[in-house]
Amino acid sequence: MTTATDDRPPVVSPLRVPAFRSLWAGDSVSQLAHQVTQFLLPLLAVTVVHTSGFGVGVVSASQFLPVIFLSLVAGSYANKVSTRALLVLCNVLRGVALGLMGVVCAFTGLSFWLLVAAAVVIGCVAVFHDVGFHAAFPRVLTTEQLTPGNGLYEASYSAAQMAGPALAGYAVHSLGLSTLMSVTAVLFLASALCFLPLRLPALADHPDTKDVSVRAGLAFIWRTRAIRDLCVQSALYNLHEQAFLTAFMIYGVRSLHLSGGALGLVMGLGSLGAVAGSLVIGRIGARLHVGAALSASLVLGGLSLFVGALVATPGSAAPVLAAAFVVNGAALASYNVFALSLRGALPPPEHLGIVTAGYRLVSRAPMPLGALLGGVLVETVGGATAVTVIALSLTLAATSLLRSPLRRVRRLGTATSAL
């Protein structure tokens, strides 16, 4: 009697693919610089400009508003221009913008409208970078390599989320604002250098790739329920998460009496769980039930924030909330690895640019509203009530995938037939 064996060849590590290494290295450095900037601008609105909760929400929202207006434009260009040139240019522009902002701050000081202008400019460029990067990602990996590849991407992204707030919180006091902005500008320029060796496979087998219209790409998203459900779920989560982070930043400083450095460390440590979760999922994800992981991960993430917000007090806030962010980060990493892999595996190559842009538009468009909502809720009902209510709503919204056909998907390679 013989024993059945798995005759499938082992999956080649994505790190052995030169184009993936260039994409991953460049985006890892770029994400670190972006996370520093994304945390720094609203932090300065609270601690230096001393604006209202609504003003903090405006600064946070200004970083995400360009997603609404530019995502489809970026998607339409993703397959029409050189991805390498696009990524290099985007990071050079962000580096120059931050460098100029540092010079202006050194001579004239910081103002609310300077923060808003910087947030809008950097947010606009980030849209083109992110769409170009995510549209190129599935082109350099096989379907079997997508899960470990996205695990590495999520790990580096989460590491940037961990390091960025901590670096911004401490460095703004120890290095000074102008120096920190100069260092962040150098990181963006270093990212551009990492993208220079990038060579993507030709799209010769798909001659119509450059002719796919925005309408056709959006129609594909609408009629493909799996992608549509992921879009809606990601939109709900991002709305709540941005509201929670904005409210938590104000609540942490004003009610829990956390310093900027401590606040950055608490939020940054949450990404430690995401790094670990991403690496674990990237390694064992091929053996997990994809649908079950998607359905359960966000519910666990919401519950962790709810419990953390409910029990935190000024004396115990830092350790309790750090633990809550760690669990939330690990759960969110699990969701993102599988969601990104499905988004890369389901569309045909000619739709990748528009599908990526449309997905990001739908999933990220609520983020400015969330930022404003978080600031308004703190002013209306108080910080403690605001973060607890937002976290509870987040947990309830995360249950929507339990009714999706995505719950039937067992393996990434069989997703199309399962749906």
Automatic annotation (TrEMBL):
Keywords: Cell membrane, Membrane, Transmembrane, Transmembrane helix, Transport
Recorded superkingdom: Bacteria
Pfam families hit by this protein: MFS_3 (PF05977)
Locations listed in the record: Cell membrane
Transmembrane segments: 85-104, 110-129, 175-198, 258-281, 288-311, 317-340, 384-402
Protein's UniProt keywords contain Membrane: yes
Keyword Transmembrane helix: yes
Record membrane topology: Multi-pass membrane protein
Primary subcellular site in the record, as a coarse category: membrane
Alphabetized PANTHER family for the sequence: INTEGRAL MEMBRANE EFFLUX PROTEIN-RELATED, MAJOR FACILITATOR SUPERFAMILY ASSOCIATED DOMAIN-CONTAINING PROTEIN
Protein name from the UniProt record: MFS transporter
Species name: Streptomyces cinnabarinus
